[in-house]
From TrEMBL:
Family: Belongs to the XPG/RAD2 endonuclease family. EXO1 subfamily.
Protein name (record): PIN domain-like protein
Compartments (UniProt record): Nucleus
Major subcellular site: nucleus
Ranges of residues in domain XPG-I: 138-208
Length: 546
């Protein structure tokens, strides 16, 4: 959570920059912040226990961005629960549980948006989620470490030892731990706000010129931190006023009590406990692979057995397994191997985590026809089918139609069209031939109805021969070439199977039927066949506006 209002108070120490400033260097990453951001998009899946890998994809996109700018990241994950923070963690877990229960109730009532908001507010990153991310980091060759307790203290120790050049975080607690350079509010493109402790003397909101780390830490503890809530009415500026008039925290607490602040009993002891937690919290040294303290223990350090709140001393083998993410830092149970995704509740469990990783082998596969499958490679395996053999009953009878009409010189011509009049291949006019034996000839020029009579075939003939029989239909058409003809050609009577009718009367009757009116059209715009005697064509009427 950090110190409320500390970053705005020290705004002169911050400036906009880019992660590229640390090219060729190693920076430490407070990894839980990226995990929480990635989990926001799949909060409902995590709350309902559905398998999801969205938070892993978000995390890896940020990691690859750092590598793109030649920055070597060292990912630091939180470990077990710190005793000094136990009360704060219990309260947070209780609030998350209440929000999750309300979200489940709203989800059952189909109030998805309100439920999703509560799911986001009840998010909690679990050790199982950390293990899934670590497995992905191993595949791409990224370095990582799981702290015994808190990642903030681990990052502060790594910077003090020169392992990293800066720390990427959103938590202002790193200032209290004494970090020199902090990369704040970094986005997906690498733009960030750079905190530089060397610019502390330029702060104008409060006078901290010449202050060391101890006095700044005391000011932050009095204003309220994760290890101790503040006295009612005490913020950063009032805490600065008391620390400016004191030499240590104990003297500042006495001044607060003397000036009428409602200091609770035992507050002085709690302040000392918070200060020791910032100073001597247990962390992991990646060089010696042992558990050490943030600040080196010296003669002025109180006995370690009197400070159980800084973290329990663990066995060296357990510390190494926690750092390598081989065991759960909360339950100390060994992780199952071969984890690929996650399907687990958001609250951390104290039991074995193998049940969570058994469901990780399943992944969401896009179904064909869905929106996702249009951008993904099709994974549906098509089985070849053998084409069925055509039966005799399915054969189509081929019908050959011959159109007989007159050409421009009134000579008889026959056009043969096997398939389509408009889309078939263009054929040359052919002479009329008598129908072949065994085929039926129909003359459509007669008024009587034509019937197709299939010739009787011997029983010995195959069905294929019967189906491949060709029928020839001879029909007369009144088609004429689409050219302007002289008046003598217009007077020539054209034989047709349809009823003879004057072209002008025919057009007038048809257009009058559909409510058209006459309009003038030039004679050259139409053929004589469709031109009326007065050179007028018909044009549709306009509807009246109501």
């Amino acid at each position: 959570m950090g110190i409320s209002g500390l970053l705005p108070l020290l705004r002169e120490t911050q400036e906009k920059g880019h992660i590229e400033q640390f090219a060729g260097q190693t920076v430490g990453i407070d990894s839980y912040i990226w995990l929480y951001r990635g989990a926001f998009s799949c909060a409902a899946d995590l709350a309902l226990g559905k398998p999801t890998t969205k938070y892993i994809a978000h995390f890896m996109s940020r990691a690859k961005m750092l590598r793109h700018y030649n920055v070597e990241p060292l990912f630091v994950f939180d470990g077990g629960l710190l005793p000094s923070k136990e009360c704060t963690e219990l309260e947070r877990q209780r609030n998350r549980k209440e929000r999750r229960e309300k979200g489940m109730k709203l989800w059952g009532q189909s109030k998805k948006k309100a439920a999703f908001d509560l799911f986001q507010r009840s998010l909690e990153v679990t050790p199982q989620m950390v293990r899934c991310v670590v497995d992905e980091l191993k595949k791409h060759g990224f370095k990582y470490v799981v702290a015994p307790y808190e990642a903030d203290a681990q990052l502060a120790y790594l910077e003090s030892q020169g392992v990293i050049s800066a720390a990427v975080s959103e938590d202002s607690d790193l200032i209290v731990f004494g970090c020199q350079k902090i990369i704040l509010k970094m986005d997906q493109y690498g733009d960030a706000v750079m905190f530089d402790r060397s610019k502390m003397d330029a702060v104008t909101a409060v006078d901290v010129k010449g202050w060391d780390k101890d006095r700044i830490r005391g000011m932050c503890i009095l204003s309220g931190c994760d290890y101790l809530p503040s006295v009612p009415g005490i913020g950063l500026k009032k805490a600065h006023r008391y620390m400016a008039r004191s030499t240590d925290l104990a003297m500042a607490v006495r001044l607060m009590r003397n000036e009428g602040c409602k200091v609770p009993d035992g507050y002085k002891k709690e302040v000392r406990r918070a200060e020791l937690t910032f100073l001597y919290q247990r962390v992991f040294d990646p060089r010696s692979r042992t558990m050490v303290h943030v600040t080196k223990v010296d003669e002025s350090t109180p006995p370690l057995d009197e400070m159980p709140f800084i973290g329990k001393l663990l066995e060296p083998a357990i510390v190494r397994d926690i750092a390598d993410c081989l065991i759960d830092p909360i339950s100390l149970d060994r992780f199952a191997q071969g984890a690929k995704s996650l399907s687990s509740p958001m609250a951390p469990t104290a039991g074995s985590t193998s049940a969570h990783f058994e469901s990780l082998s399943t992944s969401e596969k896009p179904r064909p026809g869905t929106l996702v499958s249009f951008w993904a490679n099709p994974k549906v395996q098509m089985t070849p089918t053998t084409p069925a053999t055509a039966s005799a009953a399915g054969c189509e009878l081929e019908v050959q139609v011959k159109f007989r009409g007159k050409t421009a010189d009134n000579s008889l011509a026959v056009r043969t069209q096997t398939h389509s009049k408009f889309f078939g291949k263009k054929t040359e006019p052919a002479t009329v031939e008598p129908p072949a034996a065994g085929s039926e000839t129909v003359d459509l020029t007669k008024d009587e109805t034509a019937e197709f009579v299939q010739p009787e075939t011997p029983k010995a003939k195959a069905i294929d021969e019967e189906c491949s029989q060709t029928l020839t239909i001879i029909a007369e058409t009144a088609d004429t070439p689409q050219t302007l003809l002289p008046a003598e050609s217009q007077a020539t009577e054209v034989e047709s199977a349809s009823q003879e009718m004057d072209a002008g009367c025919l057009a007038s009757s048809l257009f009058a039927k559909f409510g058209y009116r006459e309009a003038k059209v030039p004679n050259h715009a139409v053929t004589p066949r469709y031109r009326q005697g007065n050179g007028r064509l018909l044009k549709p009427k306009r509807r009246r506006k109501v």
